[in-house]
Write a structure and sequence with these properties.
about 120 residues; rod-shaped
Length: about 120
């Protein structure tokens, strides 16, 4: 029995090496999957993304709660995207705070220097 991954790969006229490159998996992993070894969820997700299909479409046996599985993967991807956005905001805030701190320190020195010049001028 031919695996679904192999069918999809051959439909696109891709070599195992090309599929491995596109999915960021090793060629050996692709070979194992095509020989009906059970892949991990992460591997299935990577392949589903490359083939633009759901994870449940890649397995020959029905996955329990396959719809829930696909939605959980989509939710996890959204969470990663949101966390990356939050991290970027935090980094920007830290940079702005650092710039403000150095501006305050620099401006304080200028003000103290000007006050000294004014005081020196008032004395003489």
């Amino acid at each position: 029995m031919e695996s679904r991954v192999k069918q999809l790969r051959l439909e696109r006229a891709w070599s195992q090496e090309r599929l491995a490159e596109l999915s960021s998996l090793s060629t050996r992993t692709i070979q194992r999957i095509e020989n009906n070894e059970v892949p991990s969820l992460e591997t299935l997700s990577a392949l589903a993304s490359v083939f633009n299909v759901s994870v449940s479409e890649l397995t020959s046996e029905p996955l329990p709660e396959s719809i829930e599985l696909d939605s959980r993967i989509a939710e996890a991807k959204k969470r990663v995207k949101d966390e990356a956005k939050l991290l970027k905001s935090i980094i920007v805030a830290i940079i702005v705070c650092a710039i403000m701190y150095f501006l305050i320190i620099y401006m304080r020195r200028i003000v103290i220097g000007l006050f000294g010049l004014w005081l020196f001028g008032a004395v003489f």
